[in-house]
Amino acid sequence: MIMNNELQKPDDATLILRRLLKAPQELAFQVWTSAEHIQQWMRPEPGMEVPLASMDLRVGGKFRIQMKAPDGEYYTAVGMFQEVKAPERLVYTWDWEKDGSGAEFGEVEGKTSLVTVEFLNRGERTEMVFTHTRFATVESRDSHARGWGKIVESFAGIVEKE
Amino acid sequence: MVEYSSKLLDRTFGALADPTRRRILAQLAEGEECVTDLARPHRMSLAAVSKHLIVLEKAGLVRRRRNGRVHSLALEAKPMREARAWIDRYRKFWEGNLDQFEKYLEQLQTKETKQDDHEQ
């Protein structure tokens, strides 16, 4: 059994978050993937809002989530679905738009990263496993993640000393 | 909020993608070593190990000190710190989002239950 809000770091390029949600799998998947719901829950920081969200939920389909901070700054995320297996698994790319204030897809900047979301059926509850990695494909992430634990531990000591 | 992607960071992850280079870094995590000692456990020529060391140096993961003819190498922590910063920014971002996602899911279901009660 997993702990709630468990955090894992298999390597220094991948973030994994786990949650045990008090909701059935179907509902969790639906709320995570529908634009209307996203506009309600997407709040990385207090006071932020989501003026626009669009989701074309199919392999090769795109999404765009425009977040607006209280200071007027826009943070707009875009990406493309690589895997869609309702109601349990989603894989999509993640990019930030340079400007982000427009109503349509704009120019992106930086490096494409990859998000994988899994919703595992636990009866009335759902175990959520959220992964965000710097690698743009599942393959590159997996080949990279192998055999990493120890080295990161050794580094951790050094990094914290400085 | 989520600013990232420097060329250095990409080089860091590229350099770390090779198992021999990860083993070299693990050796250096124990302390500074000279090139000959580093080569020994890898059953590799000095030239082959030197190639890997150059990749690691370019990524800024190790620094080289010359003491006459002996070159010794030490781990450099800065790129790892930047890699961590990338993760920490996203952790903050997603933990905030997941908190709200969780709360919202619970609110939705409370509403549904209330509506059901009302209808009955």
Notes on the structure:
The complex is a heterodimer of chains A (162) and B (120). Chain A has 162 residues and is an alpha+beta fold. Chain A has a single domain (16-161), classed as Alpha-D-Glucose-1,6-Bisphosphate, Chain A, domain 4 (2-Layer Sandwich). Chain A is 23% helix and 44% strand. Chain A contains 4 helices and 8 strands; from the N terminus they run E-E-H-H-E-E-E-E-E-E-H-H. Chain A has helices at residues 25-33, 35-41, 138-145, 149-161; strands spanning 7-11, 14-21, 49-55, 62-68, 74-85, 89-97, 108-122, 125-133. An 8-stranded antiparallel sheet of chain A has the order 1-2-8-7-6-5-4-3, sandwiched between helices. In chain A, strand 7 and strand 8 (125-133) form a beta hairpin. In chain A, helix 1 crosses helix 2. The radius of gyration of chain A is 17 Å and the shape is globular. The termini of chain A are far apart. By secondary structure, chain B is mostly helical. Chain B has a single domain (1-120), classed as Arc Repressor Mutant, subunit A. Chain B is built from 5 helices and 3 strands, in the order H-H-E-H-H-E-E-H. Chain B has helices at residues 7-16, 19-29, 35-39, 46-58, 78-119; strands spanning 33-34, 62-67, 70-75. Chain B has a 3-stranded antiparallel sheet with strand order 1-3-2. In chain B, a hairpin with a 2-residue loop joins strand 2 and strand 3 (70-75). In chain B, helix 1 crosses helix 5. Chain B is rod-shaped, with a radius of gyration of 24 Å. Residues 1-5 of chain B have low confidence and may be disordered. The interface between A and B is large, with 48 and 42 residues.
Quick overview of this protein structure:
With about 160 residues, chain A is α+β, with helices and mostly antiparallel strands.
Largest interface: A-B, 48 and 42 residues
CATH superfamily of chain B: Winged helix-like DNA-binding domain superfamily/Winged helix DNA-binding domain
CATH H-level name of chain A... which superfamily?
A: START domain
* Inertia-based shape of chain A: globular
> Unreliable runs of chain A, pLDDT <50, ≥5 residues?
1-10, 146-150
Task: Report the total helices of chain A.
Answer: 4
Which strand order does the major sheet of chain B show? 1-3-2
Strand content of chain B: 5-15%
Low-confidence stretches of chain B: 1-5
Distance between termini of chain B? 48 Å
What is the global morphology of chain B? rod-shaped
State the CATH class of chain A: Alpha Beta
Q: What's the order of the H and E elements of chain B?
A: HHEHHEEH
